[in-house]
Amino acid sequence: MSHLPTPDVPMVRLSYNDIHTAIQNAAVKIKEEFAPTLFIAIGGGGFIPARILRTQLKTDINGKKRNIPIQAVGLVLYESMGGVEEKVGTEVVRTQWLDFSTLGQNFNHGGLLGRRILVVDEVDDTRTTLMYTIRELKSDIEKQLADVKDEKERERLREETKLAIFVVHNKLKEKAGKLDDDVAYFSAVDTPDLWLAYPWECDGDIEAHDGLRAQNPKF
């Protein structure tokens, strides 16, 4: 969910089926153009989309379907108000990061090198958390490359390590910044600047939530 609804920013309720269908439709392009080997889900909005996408993008190894691993990062976006009060804003705080011990440190010189890494989130709103995630991943990649002593091997791994972003919804609005050209970008649905009410944020009757989708504005 992004900002609260106003007369100028109406609410659009989304069902699990809406999300599943959008991701399924986007998966074909992602597989053809990027073929990720590692998902990094931004919690909590990226968890369910990453899990759905993993089913759509299973890799075929020796005739057997294999799941792509998912790692999770936790980020909080807030703005300090000078006291104890905080609100959603512009500062990103890291609450959880990658577990490198499960990424094959010995095999991949730290776990990220040689991977095609797809960062997954529910929505690209201001882009602040996405830019933070990419920046931190690039920093981790450079640290791991620095530990590779053989220059040819280091440059090979640098070339093979790729980053991309997938969001279910991309809001067509001014962003906090521009992504680097070497970061591929995929969105399932481009939308106006709407208040998107995701089903996993529903704290009441999910069937009532789905029923109210009939009131969604047309766009």
Describe this structure in words.
This protein is of the alpha/beta class. The protein has one domain: Rossmann fold (3-Layer(aba) Sandwich). It is built from 6 helices and 10 strands. The chain has helices spanning 16-33, 47-56, 105-108, 128-146, 151-160, 206-211, and strands spanning 11-13, 38-43, 59-61, 64-66, 70-80, 86-96, 116-124, 162-171, 183-191, 195-197. The strands form 3 sheets. The protein has a 6-stranded mixed β-sheet with strand order 6-5-2-7-8-9, with helices on both faces. It has a two-stranded parallel sheet with strand order 1-10. Strands 3-4 form a two-stranded antiparallel sheet. Strand 5 (70-80) and strand 6 (86-96) form a beta hairpin. InterPro entries: PRTase-like, PRTase_dom. GO terms for molecular function: hypoxanthine phosphoribosyltransferase activity. It comes from Kwoniella newhampshirensis.
What are its keywords?
single chain, about 220 residues, alpha/beta, Rossmann fold, six-stranded mixed beta sheet, two-stranded parallel ribbon, 6 helices, glycosyltransferase, hypoxanthine phosphoribosyltransferase activity
Show the helix and strand layout:
Elements: E1 11-13, H1 16-33, E2 38-43, H2 47-56, E3 59-61, E4 64-66, E5 70-80, E6 86-96, H3 105-108, E7 116-124, H4 128-146, H5 151-160, E8 162-171, E9 183-191, E10 195-197, H6 206-211
Parallel strand pairs: 1-10, 2-5, 2-7, 7-8, 8-9
Antiparallel strand pairs: 3-4, 5-6
InterPro entries: PRTase-like (IPR029057), PRTase_dom (IPR000836)
GO molecular function, one term: hypoxanthine phosphoribosyltransferase activity
Keywords: Glycosyltransferase, Transferase
